[in-house]
Amino acid sequence: MIRQLRPAAAGLALYLFIAIAVLGCAFPGNSAVTADNAAVSVERMAGITDDAVKEIQQAADAATGFFGDNAGLRLKESVTIVLTQDRKSYIREIISRFKISEPEAERVSLGTHALAGNRLIIVDMSGIPTVRQKTFLIAHELTHQFQRQLAGNQAGQVKWLLEGMAETTGAQVVARRGYFGIDQYRNNWRSGLEQTADKPDLSELKSADGWSASLSRYGSSVTYKTAGLAVLTLTERFGQQKVLDYFSGLGRGESPESSFQKAFGISMADFIAEYRRIIRKAA
């Protein structure tokens, strides 16, 4: 299912978390590695302009700065963002960097403008034309790196929390840079769900299989809005740190339900029921 970019959902895409080790280095035939900060480097392929590299580096700086300023978090390992000019070069880099076949690359990248693995993000720049979309997308993808840093391979146990936090962070970073307000994202996500009678319950979005099924049945926009609004609700009610505490609990070996209870003071089941009532009212 191709996820459409919408005015108030900048840079939204179908994101796949590939848990494989990736070397953040240049490959033969690439353009030069450009622009570094302490943790994130931007590597450009043929056809990527200096301005595009600058915009992505600024987005990465804004995202890492957000985590540093609000939670005292820094990336412990370097992350490489690889910029490709179009879908053809995007697929080519996915095949090369992730060591998968062309059919598999086509499958996992369907509907995406970015694909993230451990310490690597490959981006199709043709799908994110505005600075706001670039900022949202890069913030979303770097959030996954922080989640993995806190929780390791357990980060994705509850998909709506994994993706919803990344959506919420994308909105927060965009708002921090003055492109779009949090209230505008909240209202957009809420109104989008209000206009959709058939939408997923959070309980359907826990597992990877359930998430995929929702993308097929309800569409990517509704699926991501459902998760994004849920985590934005948690963030505004309990604070950003509590969301991070949930992922830290997973990293300590706690179950999702136990970590959620400790972080937010309510059970996950109770929150899902409450959110269900909110969403049903929206209908």
Tell me the layout of helices and strands.
Elements: E1 17-21, E2 33-36, E3 40-44, H1 50-71, E4 79-84, H2 87-98, H3 102-108, E5 114-118, E6 120-124, H4 131-151, H5 159-176, H6 182-194, H7 208-217, H8 220-238, H9 240-251, H10 256-264, H11 268-282
Parallel strand pairs: 1-5, 3-4, 4-6
Antiparallel strand pairs: 2-3, 5-6
Helix pairs in contact: 1-4, 1-5, 2-3, 4-5, 4-9, 5-8, 6-8, 7-8, 8-9, 9-10
In a few lines, what is going on in this structure?
This protein has 283 residues and is an alpha/beta fold. The protein has 11 helices and 6 strands.
Explain what the structure shows.
The chain is α/β, with parallel strands linked by helices and 283 residues long. It has one domain: Neutral Protease, domain 2 (Orthogonal Bundle). Helix content is 56%, strand content 11%. It contains 11 helices and 6 strands. Strands 1-5-6-4-3-2 form a 6-stranded mixed beta sheet, sandwiched between helices. Strand 3, helix 1 and strand 4 form a beta-alpha-beta unit. Helix 1 crosses helix 4, helix 2 crosses helix 3 and helix 9 runs antiparallel to helix 10. It is globular and about 50 Å long. The two termini are 23 Å apart.
